[in-house]
């Protein structure tokens, strides 16, 4: 039996408690989950320059000019990038930017918008 409370993966309530047979339950939404299965399925944990957790489909804003090889100019600061996709690796955001096309960005150069 565990006295540790875990946040609910569905509603993010901080009051998830140990229920039975390695399962945790949320008192707010009633969701039950296995913490080991959630850790495996969670995918990459990517945070922006301010420490906010990013998810697939988020909109981010570029926080500095980013040079692009083969392009006539950089991606300018303040450029809004919609519908990002998180991937593993050094450049952990895949996206499409108007005027540049598909590209990969580092999360340290964006903020959640």
Question: Helices, strands, pairings?
Answer:
Elements: E1 17-20, E2 23-25, E3 32-33, H1 35-41, E4 46-47, E5 53-54, E6 60-62, E7 80-81, E8 85-86, E9 93-97, E10 101-105, E11 110-112
Antiparallel strand pairs: 1-2, 2-3, 4-5, 6-7, 6-11, 8-9, 9-10
Descriptive report:
- This protein has 113 residues and is mostly beta strands.
- It has one helix and eleven strands.
- The strands form four sheets. A three-stranded antiparallel sheet has the order 1-2-3.
- The radius of gyration is 18 Å and the shape is elongated.
- It starts with 16 loop residues before the first strand and ends with a strand.
* Structural Rg: 18 Å
Strand order of the largest sheet: 1-2-3
Summarize the main sheet: 3 strands, antiparallel
Q: Bin the helical content.
A: under 10%
The beta-strand count equals 11
Secondary-structure element pattern, one letter each: EEEHEEEEEEEE
Strand fraction equals 25-35%
Task: Put the structure in a nutshell.
The chain is mostly beta strands and 113 residues long.
Keywords, separated by commas or semicolons:
single chain, 113 residues, mainly beta, 3-stranded antiparallel β-sheet, elongated
């Amino acid at each position: 039996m565990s006295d540790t409370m875990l946040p609910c993966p569905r509603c993010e309530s901080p009051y998830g408690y140990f229920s039975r047979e390695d399962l945790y339950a949320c008192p707010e939404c009633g969701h039950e989950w296995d913490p080991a299965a959630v850790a495996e399925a969670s995918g990459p944990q990517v945070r922006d320059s301010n420490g906010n957790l990013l998810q697939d489909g988020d909109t981010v804003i570029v926080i500095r000019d980013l040079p692009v090889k083969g392009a006539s100019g950089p991606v300018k600061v303040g450029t809004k990038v919609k519908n990002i996709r998180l991937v593993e690796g050094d450049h952990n955001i895949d996206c499409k930017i108007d005027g540049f096309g598909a590209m990969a960005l580092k999360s340290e150069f964006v903020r959640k918008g």
